[in-house]
Specification:
Elements lengths: L1 H20 L2 H10 L2 H8 L10 E5 L4 H7 L11 E2 L5 H6 L5 E5 L3 H6 L7 E4 L4 H24 L23 H32 L1 H6 L5 H31 L8 H25 L3 H17 L12 H6 L4 H13 L5 H33 L1
Parallel strand pairs: 1-2, 1-3
Antiparallel strand pairs: 3-4
Helix pairs in contact: 1-10, 3-8, 8-10, 8-11, 8-12, 8-14, 10-11, 11-14, 11-15, 14-15
């Protein structure tokens, strides 16, 4: 009996793989999310100030104003554009400049005379990340240039305590290292839910689910077949992406054991594929399933600790997200891939993923059996 059940699960899983192979849209999606999506997300970190367009209105025409103008240069800013006061509003309305710095007349004379001097900075706040980060940079640059001009020499005061900085796990502070690995973790979650849910809905829309009902197979065998087949596809795609895109194209070093990471990923897939089947039993068609995906995947990814530090979230959110598999998978993946952690460090996350996966599988199986009985 057990041998026959295993054969049924294996053959049903192979059927799912053949169905996926004949679905070009899903194949393109798998290739895209584990190649271009990972690469672009790693190289397009939004908090980085890069080539921010800046213009300067110089109404002073003094050595100090010229000094301030030459202090802005790539890669944080584009080369400053010298414009007139009448061009400020039109340029910002058209989106040509994110920052416009206006240096008033007699600015150098007021600075040297010890009088209050002001510089106006206009910022396009619709570009929120650049506006927030760039304003701080501009303030620091202008203040440093003015201080050096007044002191008549370029230098800085020696602090009484010398702070020696050591950056561990990412010594160059390269944001693409974090972005690439974090994107792999996010794509495993998203794609596993999509593939299993789409596999069940596809059978319902094509009418093949009725064929399964008259065969000597149980709902347990059908569900396990979908779980192992779609989980295997995601696991292989993630392994290829981690080796060829993250380690190869991006040049990101991996500190820990890949075998340990993918063992944790398998437990994660056990939970997320079960969740995908549950969502497919709730949705009647693919558009409804897509809406459920939006309501599910965004909280799972945004509140798991991959996008923002988990400890900085409200305590209520931290408590609620303890039941989400993504929270434990992000901790597990970060510990292994970034810090080279072993099983002695990540075993609590392994246990949590196993428990959450077992609970989701049992709940989804009960829902799947109910849906099958209603169709019968």
């Amino acid at each position: 009996m057990a041998n026959r059940r295993l054969k049924n699960i294996y053959r049903l899983g192979v059927k799912e793989l053949w169905s996926l192979w004949r679905d070009p849209v899903m194949l393109v999606l798998i290739v895209y999310v584990f190649t271009l999506a990972v690469y672009t997300a790693a190289n397009a970190m939004p908090e980085t100030l890069h080539n921010a367009p800046i213009a300067i209105v110089d109404e002073d025409h003094s050595p100090l104003s010229q000094r301030i103008m030459t202090a802005f240069y790539p890669p944080r800013f584009t080369s400053p554009v010298l414009i007139d006061q009448s061009q400020v509003d039109a340029g910002m309305d058209a989106g040509h400049y994110t920052f416009v710095l206006i240096i008033p007349p007699d600015f150098q004379r007021d600075v040297l005379g010890g009088r209050t001097a002001e510089i106006q900075l206009n910022t396009d706040a619709t570009r929120m990340t650049q506006a927030f980060t760039g304003s701080g940079y501009i303030q620091q640059i202008v203040s440093a240039e003015i201080n050096e001009f007044v002191q008549r020499y370029r230098g800085s005061a020696v602090p009484p305590v010398d702070l020696a900085l050591r950056a561990r796990f990412n010594p160059t502070l390269d944001k693409s290292w974090f972005g690439g690995l974090n994107q792999i973790i996010n794509q495993i979650t998203m794609l596993s839910i999509i593939l299993t849910g789409a596999a069940l809905i596809r059978e319902r829309e094509h009418g093949t689910i009725e064929h399964l009902l008259v065969m000597p197979v149980t709902p347990f065998e059908i569900m396990v077949a979908k779980v192992w087949s779609m989980g295997l596809v995601v696991l292989l795609a993630a392994a290829l992406s981690l080796n060829f895109v993250v380690r190869g194209a991006l040049g990101v070093p991996v500190s820990g054991s890949l075998w340990l990471f993918f063992a944790g990923a398998a437990l994660m897939l056990f939970a997320t594929t079960s969740l995908g089947i549950f969502m497919a039993t709730v949705a009647r068609n693919m558009p409804q399933f897509g809406m459920l995906m939006v309501l599910t995947i965004i909280p799972l990814q945004m509140l798991s600790g991959g996008s923002t530090p988990y400890e900085s979230m409200p305590q209520l959110v931290q408590d609620v997200m303890q039941v989400a598999p993504t929270t434990h998978f992000v901790k597990l993946g970060s510990a292994i891939l970034f810090r080279g952690a072993g099983i002695d460090v990540v075993w609590p996350q392994f246990l949590a993923l196993a428990a959450i996966g077992a609970g989701l599988f049992a709940f989804s199986l009960a829902r799947f059996r109910k849906a099958i009985s209603e169709m019968a």
